[in-house]
Amino acid sequence: MTATENAGHALLVLAHPRPDSLTAQAADRARARLVAGGFTVDVLDLHTEGFDPRMTPEDEPDWADPDKTYSEEVRSHMRRVDAADAIVVVFPLWWFGPPAVLKGWIDRVWNHGFAYGRGRPWPRKKRMLWLGLVSYTHDQFTELGWDETVARVLREGISGFCGIDDASVHFVYDSLNAGEAVLDATGEALDAFAR
């Protein structure tokens, strides 16, 4: 990624409980790449910040009220999402889906009247990259068809449903064995995202 003047503001979301994990290292590499590309970066480490992924009545969508006022915790996350031109989510793929803390963040924050069912468009056009670390090799993952299934849920079921049409999904394969190659693949995904 080459530096550009005023590339925009990125929200980098990390969903892993250990700060020394390969996923955290990949997120750190992503942050450095975004900064080098001219972005200002807001790092949202869901575990470090203590985000509670459990849905509460206060944050449950009210389909009849797109102007519902959600909890202050959720509204503060909504402001961070709103401020972003680019959203990069770095996470391990567990049970062929995002970890519970990330799924809970989507459930609570990407809520009715905010991320979908909006009365107005996003204040700025958004781009999104889902960067998932997968323990399977590329051949194993694609042979089972999980690449298409998981990518479709993330790209269309979440991003597209919420009006983010410029969304991509990149899997980093064999993450338990690939070592430094995982971090290199993270950089490659960000370079492709920036084009």
TrEMBL record:
Family: Belongs to the NAD(P)H dehydrogenase (quinone) family.
Record bears the keyword Oxidoreductase: yes
Naturally occurring in which organism (per UniProt): Streptomyces macrosporus
Domain of life: Bacteria
UniProt keyword annotations, A-Z: Oxidoreductase
Matches recorded under PANTHER family: NAD P H OXIDOREDUCTASE-RELATED (PTHR10204), NAD(P)H DEHYDROGENASE [QUINONE] 1 ISOFORM 1 (PTHR10204:SF34)
Every Flavodoxin-like fold domain range: 10-189
Signal peptide interval: none
Keyword Transferase part of the UniProt annotation: no
Name of the molecule in the record: NAD(P)H oxidoreductase
